[in-house]
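Q: Structure for this?
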Amino acid sequence: MAFDSLSEKLQNVFKNLRSKGRLTEDDVKTALKEVKMAFLEADVNFRVVKQFIKDVQERAIGQDVMNGLNPGQMVIKIVNEEMIRLMGSETTEIAFRPGKELTVIMMVGLQGAGKTTTTAKLAGKFKSRGKKALLCACDVYRPAAIEQLEINGKKQGVEVFSMGDKHKPVDIAKAAVEHARKNEYNVLIVDTAGRLHVDEEMMAELIEIKEAVDVFQTILVVDAMTGQDAVNVASTFDEKIGIDGVVLTKLDGDTRGGAALSIRTVTGKPILYAGMGEKLSDLEQFYPDRMASRILGMGDVLTMIEKAQENIDEEKARELEQKMKRNEFDFEMYLESMGQMKKMGGLSSLMGMMPGMGAGKMPEIDTDEAEKNMARIEAIIHSMTPQERKNPNLLNPSRRNRIAKGAGVDVAEVNRLVKQFEQTRKLMKQMPGFGGKKGRRGMAGMFKGLPF
Amino acid sequence: MGEEKKGFFSRLVAGLTKTRDNIVSGIDAVFSGFSKIDEEFYEELEEILIMGDLGVRATEHILDNLRDKVKENHIKEPADCKQLLIDSIKEQMQVTDAAYRFEEEKSVVLVIGVNGVGKTTTVGKLAGKLKSQGKKVIVAGADTFRAAAGDQLREWANRSGVDMIGGAEGADPGAVVYDATAAAKARNTDVLLVDTAGRLHNKKNLMNELGKINRILEKEYPEAYRETLVVLDATTGQNALVQAKEFSDVAKISGIVLTKMDGTAKGGIAVAIQSELGVPVKYIGVGETIDDLQKFNSDEFVDALFDINKK
């Protein structure tokens, strides 16, 4: 996950702080020097780091900490608060024109930042919110860029407007607007070619498009791995064309993503979304406060709960709960629970969001191994007949042998699964019943009875 | 050779000075703006080097080295430090073996990297260059994942008039590579260039896929000279080091291609890479045309950074 290494570092710094009763000015300075190094290695812009350290130091040395009961905690709190302030305290959404009016969004950025992919991802997001979106392919330079958008548009079920690579981008954009108006689209996303912010000619092209089609929102797409230059790129694009928001891509890499911190501070423009993977659904809302606690290794429970709610079918969860109450838990439900877990991004992604579990805190749990294990269990259950799944008591040795063969595992593994399953069932009988709040019900359905 | 070198330098200078704001201007200001060598002076240098993406560690090494030299030679004037600083950086960039043997022999060049760094473009440019040297080249489009990546490469192949072996979207890249080795052998090809899908270095399955491609090349085409180039985006910060390290775990990397050097990023990451990893930067991309992919020479690079023009 993005900020692992940074939060690891900060945690080490603060471990030393925590063990002290009181802090001297020097303590704070040494600790903050470590923070500075960690930030620099994370590619946070040098000037931003300088200012950040100054701010924290002022607050930390000035008052709170010296008399605080737990100085280390206070420093963490201040660093956290300052970090959230840097990244913008509130979540921001892309703005639309009111009612059914056509909103034109233009995507801009350097080459290879992920504009075309992000364009398609955004279209999917808008579509699921009930907007009628049209994409416009204005990258006439990169070979096959238009095809890429067309293919991705098709995957998202969104129409793509293109005129090949023989026309001027501004003309294509104009025609796209006309097409959108005629066919009653309410969002038009214009994908432009990647360009260097120092390339005057190419920048002029963007200005021309922006004026010609009355762009409502200009979105800058930035690779989260960008180094010290991120700030230059963002501020130049902002000065020359004017941007309204930023999408950070490739945050699923292990970059520490200092660019996120820097861009927001320097341009003052909000970070709207974060690209978290190659699949067209992997575009997440950017929550500054959650990101900050993730950096500090405090986990991101909110995102996890939200993911759970998004992916869990209420009906099914209720049914599951009823069955559990009547002690009818069977292998079908076992399979169901595992499926839900997978939908939420698998074990590793969930673990990363748990407090204290990111940042390599749990080396003894090999999530890859656990995920493989889950796949094997799935295979075993799939090799059972429907009757066997519903009534595990049927599973005599001969049946178990057949299942083992079907799943390509040793019969001992089948035995182990059945035993685990029976234990889980026994455990459930002892539970005083589920229920309670909306979110918890889903969670209970998911995590009970999984073999770890 | 002389011709090419000159081309490299002037292009590099042109590419780098597109940004008025490169290391030079800042450094010159420091050297002329300080009247004595003190902590503040070093701090100012540190800022400039880090802003140039040289990285925390390489910067530390360079400055330590500079401090030693300043002491040794009893230097008092900041202005006299400039050459020492340049030397320190050059020293940090010393690596062995930056040869281009794959150009002379039957070879396979595997091109890998994260998403969006310019792998396909690099393969296209390399194909054009080698073809113009009279080599018989085949490009293999093993990026079967990204929509239209194959079309992009085909366009490059057509432009430079070389053969291409590809697969349908979603096909097994291993199979494409297998076919490509067979074609390379059958057609008596000089250089087989393999373009792969971009992958983040922390995605285990994708890295395993790369390992598989690597094994296929080893097994099916053992007689070919192997060159594995990691393409890095010059605007990438310190994560570039992590990328290179991770990639070297699945395939023995023999060189780096640094693309997009014509942005305002100061390309200091080249220093960090050679200093910390010891892997030579073999090519840099300073523009969009085929000629803008140039062989790399670290001494000249440092000179270009400091705008020392010794034609």
